[in-house]
Amino acid sequence: MNFVELGQIFAQYEAAELNRTVDPSDDMYASGPEWYWSLGRSGVECVLQGLAVTPLSSVGSVLDLACNWGRTGRHLHAAFPDATIWYSDINEQAAEFCAREFSGKSIIASSELTETPLPQLDVMWIGSLFTHLTETKTRTWLAYLAEHLNPHGILVATFHGRRTAEIFKNQFPELVSQTWPVAQESGWGYVPYDSADPEWGFSMNTVVRLAEIATDIPGVRIAGLVEAGWDGNHDVLTLLRI
Question: Can you tell me the distance from the alpha carbon of 88 to that of 130, in angstroms, rounded to the nearest whole number?
């Protein structure tokens, strides 16, 4: 996508009246209303940066995976009002809220993503999902998602890296101390939130390991790997379907 086309999308986004309806159950808004809006905007910017390396001239379909209550989804709708946007979350009410409020369709995600039926897509945005997974599950889910990209489609996902470790070391010192030193040594650190659910927790990783994981996924190439690319915190990986 050339810079003229990207500029038109961004201008459309800037001119749009953003839907600021917040559901009372939106825990992400409740935990940080001061950065809620900037995170959503930064998500769109991450997607536009990814589109800069694709031959696509337009975007017809978008997936917001782990959409929650629309922190980024509302911004994606403002940027791509003519695209079919799919909002997916394990929380059925959240996905349906997004589909209703931001003019899209909902997909109720399974706790095992590979059991969730997905359409073929031009753009996937996955904000802060892999930040909660083991490395093994991350590899499996990334490969599954890559299979559902259209030719030249992009997947844009965020991860906890060294900038997150700096930011979170005072907020979540125990989680960081249990994961970041391990990540520095082996590439990926992970601790479950609850021993009863060992595959859902808090993960941190190095960009080197992230690049290694990405190069193992068939049918895609790395189109971007930016430290602290999402609002100055999460690292951002962009994969391009070839």
Answer: 15
Q: CB neighbours (10 Å) of residue 198?
A: 12
- Domains of the chain, residue spans: 124-147+156-242
Q: Rounded to whole angstroms, how far apart are CA atoms 116 and 188?
A: 26
What residue has token string 């899209």?
104
pTM of the shown model: 0.97
Could you give the count of Cα atoms lying within 13 Å of 227 in the half-sphere of its Cβ? 11
- What is the rounded distance in angstroms from the CA atom of residue 1 to the CA atom of residue 51? 6
Going residue by residue through the chain, which has 242 residues, state the pLDDT in tens, using 9 for 90 and above: 999 999 999 999 999 999 999 999 999 999 999 999 999 999 999 999 999 999 999 999 999 999 999 999 999 999 999 999 999 999 999 999 999 999 999 999 999 999 999 999 999 999 999 999 999 999 999 999 999 999 999 999 999 999 999 999 999 999 999 999 999 999 999 999 999 999 999 999 999 999 999 999 999 999 999 999 999 999 999 999 99
Q: 26: which residues sit within 8 A by CB, 6+ positions away?
A: 68, 69, 70, 71
Q: Count CB-CB contacts under 10 A for residue 121.
A: 24
